[in-house]
Amino acid sequence: MESKNILDLFKLDGKVAIVTGAARGLGQAIATALASAGADVVAVDILPTDETRQIILQMGRKALSLSANLMEKASIAPLVESALKEFGHIDILVNNAGIIRRAPLSEFSEKDWDDVINLNQKAVFFLSQAVAKTMIKKGDGGKIINIVSLLSFQGGILVPSYTASKSAVMGLTRAMANELAPHRINVNAIAPGYMATDNTAPLRADAVRSKSILDRIPAGRWGEPADLQGVAVFLASAASDYMTGYTVAVDGGWLAR
Question: I need a surface site. Which of 15, 88, 94, 232 has the fewest CB within 10 A?
């Protein structure tokens, strides 16, 4: 039996990845990790992605910055067309873009419900659908990675639309995995724990709430975007070819408590 270096399975040379919400935080960390592993990257965000693009170019990979408001379904087809025009194929999709709105359940507005569901849930499905079609046509498989949440497992407080959307996407991950497996397209999800990002800034600024959260995390700290990089590369690579429909929690042990 020929001996192979296991690390070769994690290489993404020749692959093209789309990462949404790539301007900062978790999306930027994932986009740059995939580039470090060898992929060219399409960085998508409603915010400028110049910084992410520059980091990727400095790694010697190619990068395309695309501005898109994924709350609008009409933005999806042009995005996919631009990626194909630039690179010719799409091998990896990371559905990271998301928002959160906080208010008591009794006061939660229809707009805060619709905005969160449209970006966190609806856009994930229709972008995955559009990219999966290109992967099926290409005929050599692909990887779709959804970013879910600890609130895919739990209820949370003051965030009903966020919890609903992230619970739905964990279920959608399983559904897509089932239908796309015959095409050698793997669909998995990452559930980040309490991460030091813009979304959690209000929690970290609240001394009482922050302490209650940290007291429950066995690792004893807030997660950093870099903590997701290894698992993202694993799920995007050949190392995870027999893994599909699964959600990996990267949470410092939160769910174990």
Answer: 88
SS3 158: coil
CA nearest to 117, candidates 125, 105, 106 = 125
Considering 162, 194, 242, 246, which one is annotated as catalytic? Answer: 162
Fold of 6-252: Rossmann fold (3.40.50)
Judge whether 162 counts as a catalytic residue.
Answer: yes
Q: Encode burial over 66-102: b for 16+ CB neighbours within 10 A, e otherwise.
A: bebebbeeebbeebbeebeeebeebbbbbbbbbbbbb
Helix/strand/coil for 178: helix
Render pLDDT for 128-174 as a digit per residue (tens, 0 to 9): 999 999 999 999 999 999 999 999 999 999 999 999 999 999 999 99
Sole residue written with tokens 């410092």 = 252
E strand map for 130-227: 142-147, 185-192
pTM given for the model = 0.97
Burial class (CB in 10 A: 0-12, 13-18, 19+), 3: exposed
Both structure tokens of 19: 């990462």
